[in-house]
Amino acid sequence: MPTTVVDIWGPISPDARAYPSAPEPHEEWSLAGGTAWVFYSPLNRRQLVRPVILSDGFSGGSSNLDQLWNGLEENGDFRFISELHATGRDVIVLGYDDRTASITDNADTVIDCIRRALNERVGRSKLVVGGFSMGGLVTRYALAKMEQDPGLPDHETSLHLSYDTPHEGAWFPVSIQGFTHFATDKFGDHPLAGPVLRQFSALLNSPAAKQMARWHIQKVDDTAEAAPERVAFLQALEEVGDWPRSVRKIGVANGVDTGTGNGVAPGATAVRCNGRTLLDTWLKTQAQGDQEVARLQKAGEEPVLVRTGGLPEVDGAPGGLFGAPTPEGDPGNFGLAALLMTLLGNEVDADRIATSCFIPSISAVAAGDINGQEALYQPIAPDRSALDAFLCASRNEGHTRMTEELGAWIVNEIVSSS
């Protein structure tokens, strides 16, 4: 059954998906702020010879090995861990106690994991370090910090990889942010929807989300802009050199590099409901110019309008999607809002848009500011990227979907860089 490596909404979705159990790791390392699960290559006789550290990304709560294993290995397309094992690479899956914590805090867990890997390593092979989604950003910062801080050891890493990582920012639709904060304020004590709404709002207002989001609102009537936490993180990243300098940097995007969007029209009504608790409440996809992106009305009260101005058409941009909506999988971003509207006792229009872009392709391959409409929708040339090499998917697909196209390219890059 297809799944993604990072399950963004899984821990909070009312239709949470259960995953088959992962095999027992050969070793389990308890780290400061996280856990590392070690799977030795069969070629290395249970010794750590050629370590590849793969970091989890952004979601709620702590990392789940079952979910990560299924995304990496049992995804129905490409057995990433098995392919790495076949080349003699030992895989260290790195998880965090809190995936919503600050990127800089979780970077300390990465550093602890690198220290442990260097201590356990047999021989002198260089490490490969990287991650999925936010994990690529956490490891990027950690390696750069280790190069700049004389009190930290040499990371002895030859290659950094990132898989659909928001190097230039992530997109959480302002309409969904507004709806979530509004509904949490009005219905946070609802017996069915309340717990989910509180978790959803907390997830969007978490330190990691604020650092990743190119535009953020803390509450329903805020102006969408970069959160102070993002500004501070970008400054911290700049202070450590922005990128690690002594490694080869590669990355992949779950979106195309042709500039072709995902088909989501700008300014379209993504989801609309009417019923017992919400009256004529709707969320729209992002369009350019001044726009009302949401109308929110609790029964018996005046409507609240959420407005934006000066934003590009990000929902329809080429890039990794908020999951592929399936009965047993991720509901998508607007799809999750529809589920919550239903739980609140309302009827949702059948004609809806379930999901949209999360990580624009130009962000995943560090090729431009996602604030620019033209940059979002134009072909990506290799010389625009801050990466040494990158590959974009041949279609716009679910964020951190592991495919043979992207996974095999990464394995080849790892082998050729050694």
Describe it.
With 418 residues, the chain is of the alpha/beta class. The protein contains twelve helices and 15 strands. An eight-stranded mixed sheet has the order 1-2-4-3-5-6-7-15, with helices on both faces. Strands 11-10-9-8-13 form a five-stranded antiparallel sheet, covered by helices on one side. It has a two-stranded antiparallel ribbon with strand order 12-14. α3 crosses α4 (134-148) and α5 packs across α6 (194-204).
Summarize the topology.
Elements: E1 27-31, E2 34-39, E3 51-55, H1 65-72, H2 80-86, E4 90-96, H3 103-120, E5 127-132, H4 134-148, E6 157-163, H5 174-187, H6 194-204, H7 207-212, H8 228-239, E7 248-253, E8 269-275, E9 281-284, E10 291-296, E11 304-308, E12 319-321, H9 333-343, E13 346-348, E14 357-360, H10 361-364, H11 373-376, E15 389-392, H12 404-417
Parallel strand pairs: 3-4, 3-5, 5-6, 6-7, 7-15
Antiparallel strand pairs: 1-2, 2-4, 8-9, 8-13, 9-10, 10-11, 12-14
Helix pairs in contact: 3-4, 5-6
Write the H/E string, N to C: EEEHHEHEHEHHHHEEEEEEHEEHHEH
Mean of all residue-level pLDDT scores? 95
Sheet with the most strands: spatial strand order: 1-2-4-3-5-6-7-15
Helix content: 25-40%
Alpha plus pi helix count: 12
**Alpha-carbon distance between the termini?**
33 Å
Number of strands: 15
Structural class: alpha/beta
Give the biggest beta sheet. 8 strands, mixed
Basic shape? globular
Per DSSP, what share of the residues sits in E-state strands of 2 or more residues? Answer: 15-25%
Could you name the ranges where pLDDT drops below 50 across 5 or more consecutive residues?
none
Radius of gyration: 21 Å
Oligomerization: single chain
